[in-house]
Every structure is written in C-alpha cells, then in structure tokens.
Amino acid sequence: MRLFDRWTDPELSxxxxxxxPFFSGLFDQFKMxxxxxxxxxxxxxxxNLMHFEMWxxxxxxxxxxxxxxxxxxVPRYLWIRLSPWPGVRRRVKDLFGMDPMAPAFPRxxxxxxxxxxxxxxxxxxxxxxxxxxxxxxxxxxxxxxxxPQWSGMFQNENASVTRYPVEVRHPFLDLRLVDYLLALPxxxxxxxxxxxxxxxxxxxxxxxxxxxxTPLTSDPLVAQLQTPGAExxxxxxxxxxxxxxxxxSAIPRLNGVKASEQAGSAVRPFCLNFWLQSARRVRYNLHAxxxxx
Length: 293
Hints:
The structure is a single chain. This protein is mainly alpha-helical. 51% of the residues lie in helices and 2% in strands. Strands 1-2 form a two-stranded parallel sheet. The radius of gyration is 23 Å and the shape is globular.
C-alpha cells in the first residue's frame, strides 16, 4: 500500500471523510475474504480490554485496604517484569507535559472554524468526561471503549461500504465478555495476556501459545514517510474549500515525521483535502451523467 493509493477512484470513495491514508486497502481485504467466505471473525477489542495497568490496580488495593493482596501481588509483579524504566519514564514525561502520547488539540484547525463550533471547549469537555468516568482498575481500557473510532470501524466494515457480502463479527466485544474482563484484576491475568495463553493450552500449537508478542517493527504510516520520494505529500494541491477548515500554515511537515502520534494527527488535514477533491470529482461525474441523460 502507498499513501492515498487510489483515493481518486470514485469506486472507492467514502460518503464521509476518513482519516486513514491507507483506506483503499479496506476494499482489497474484503475482496480477498469474499472469495472464500461470508463471515469473518475479528480480534478487535482484546488489546483494549486486556490492556495491562498495574499502578491503578495497586492504588485500588491500597484504597480498599486490601494489604494482603497488595503485598502478595506488587512484589511478585516487580520480580517478573522486565524493566521498570519504561513506566518510570512515561510517568515523568506525563508529569512535565512531555509525553508525545498525551492528547493535544490540533492547532492546524482554522481558528474561525474552531471558534464558531466551539471545538476546543467541546474537546476538553470530552476529555474531562472520560476522566470522571474512569474505571478504578482499568482506566485506559475502559476509556478506550468510548472512542469514536469504534463506530467508524463498524460502519466501514458494513457491506454497504465494502461492497462485498461479508459479515464481520467481534467475539471479544460481546458485552458479556466485556463485563467479565473489566471485572478481573489485571495482574496476573492481563500481564503478557496470561489469561488468553492459559485458555489456549492444548488448543493451539505450544510454540504459538507461549511466543512473545511480536508487534510491527514500525508504524506503517511513519515508515512510509521515511521512504525516498515521500516528500511529494508536502507539495500536494490543496482544494479551495480547505481554507474554511484548516490553517495550512500551522500544518507540520509530514515527510520525515518519526513519532506515530504526531504523524497520525498531522495526516488528517491531508486526508480531508484528498477526500474533498474526491467528493468534488464524484459530484462532477454525477452532474455530467445527469446532463447526458
């Protein structure tokens, strides 16, 4: 996949803006699936629900005065964890506002547009609402389930969007399973996904069951922005309609960006720009067809 591959193809257009520069890959996936089956099982949700957080759990034990469990679990966790430094660095950065993962209101949104719709205040209110509703021992996992990306993902998997007769099912998002996992203590069950590994004993090859987590070596978007020739993305033609939504002078350069969060935020105005151009092209084609008729 290449950045914004086939976004000019009216057959792959979306009725609403999308923020994924690899959006056309969605259609390739469903085309491959539809050739073999009509139902596909998704693994989405388990990384959210089993996101490991030891510190909130330890604080909850102290708050409830469960010292027996505290002195049994915390030393055990400290003994088996690989290194405490990543967690320490993350907390120090968060304390001094240096964490690149921390949410920040995009400064490239046009000031008049943001003011007219009160966007920044609404954004801050949303963050406060998530903080108030925080789960006592799984705050990040619980908050992640309220993100708007879920509804977008479900909509984009619908056959009306993919154009292929494939139904996507999400076993890990069954509400009974969600309630169950949010009720479990994170340690030891979520550390290195122990619960899943124990449940799969004797059901899958042992080499697969006990192997360490193997994430991608890099963010696909960041990797593309590092490749030779990626500078084209900073010199694209901008749709005239973009001026009312985006302050182009505040958009950081994309080529060479190395932080995933920065790249994910900075690419959104480019996605909107390409989507507006595609939508205009679709409207023109529809108008031309109507005129010919």
